[in-house]
User: Which sequence fits this backbone?
């Protein structure tokens, strides 16, 4: 029976101008010589859901690897904080450089700091069988647990995503693909990477995290990372499939305060009132927000202040739109 080792190691270090170091660390659970998988989180410094998922996965692994010899057949790497500077300073982007770290991939070893960090992360994840990149929307929008997949990689990734115990798979067309993300860079280099979006920025939604943990463990078991005899709860969430043809964006007609009147993640009907936009200066309603279709409300504004054009909601139509 293989011995389990758990280590926290530093995969990237950069000396700062004064006495500090920027260190990116991972926790490694090494079981047998089975497949190697990874979870990455915190690439945006205001997104915390993935950090809690890493904690819950670590708790599960610590328990099972101590109680059940041989439970871990492969190797699990948890990277809870890719943008350490951003997380430490509650900043979405990479502080000082004022750039989105997830727009600087795949990076280069001799580039500027964002590109050096990205390159270090890419080198560390090379050869993994599966990477799960967890995002938490932003502070403005709340998302149901979902996977977002570039159509180019759908054939390989959708079957994995279907077992993640999430509620939605959103397939993005080529036009909306961001090639400078970690997910696109990894998938382009043959390292399968699934992007999970869920919850809201600066917060943790424990029930969403528990839901995803069950899905991740299920996929790891299927890949042979976890021994087949280890019991896991059954999957209770089966995703709907959305693509660019049946997702509707609701943008604010006027600036003001958006007050929702419908709960997130519910069925809505064409013409149904989803909320109102009001002004703090007077009692009038500035704008009514109504559903354009019969569908499912899967994104809902969390931060109430809106400007003209601000995104308030996304609805997945139950039937694809006819062109
Ligand atoms: Zn993000």
Assistant:
């Amino acid at each position: 029976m293989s011995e389990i080792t758990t280590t926290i190691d530093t995969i990237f270090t950069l000396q700062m101008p004064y006495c500090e170091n920027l260190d990116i660390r991972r926790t490694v659970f090494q079981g047998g010589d089975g497949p190697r998988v990874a979870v990455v989180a915190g690439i945006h410094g205001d997104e915390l859901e993935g950090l809690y998922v890493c904690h819950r996965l670590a708790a599960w692994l610590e328990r099972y690897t101590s109680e059940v010899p041989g439970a871990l057949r492969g190797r699990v790497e948890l990277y809870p904080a890719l943008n350490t500077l951003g997380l430490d300073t509650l900043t979405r982007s990479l502080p000082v450089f004022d750039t989105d770290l997830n727009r600087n991939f795949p990076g280069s070893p001799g580039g500027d700091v964002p590109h050096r960090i990205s390159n270090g992360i890419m080198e560390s994840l090379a050869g993994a069988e599966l990477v799960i990149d967890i995002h938490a929307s932003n502070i403005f929008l709340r998302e149901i647990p979902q996977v977002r997949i570039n159509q180019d990689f759908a054939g390989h990734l959708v079957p994995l995503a279907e077992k993640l115990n999430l509620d939605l798979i959103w397939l993005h067309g080529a036009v909306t693909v961001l090639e400078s993300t970690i997910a696109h860079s990894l998938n382009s280099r043959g390292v399968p990477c699934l992007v999970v979006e869920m919850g809201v920025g600066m917060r943790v939604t424990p029930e969403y995290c528990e839901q995803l943990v069950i899905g991740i463990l299920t996929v790891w078991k299927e890949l042979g990372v976890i021994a087949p005899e280890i019991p896991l709860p059954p999957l209770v969430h089966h995703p709907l499939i959305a693509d660019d043809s049946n997702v509707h964006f609701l943008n604010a007609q006027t600036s003001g305060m958006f007050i929702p009147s419908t709960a997130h993640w519910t069925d809505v009907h064409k013409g149904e009132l989803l909320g109102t936009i009001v002004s703090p200066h007077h009692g009038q309603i500035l704008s009514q927000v109504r559903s354009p279709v019969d569908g499912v409300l899967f994104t809902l504004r969390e931060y109430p202040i809106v400007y003209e054009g601000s995104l308030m909601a996304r609805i997945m139509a139950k039937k694809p739109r006819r062109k």
About this structure: The mean pLDDT is 94. Residues 44, 47, 135 surround zinc ion (CB under 6 Å). The chain has six helices and 17 strands.
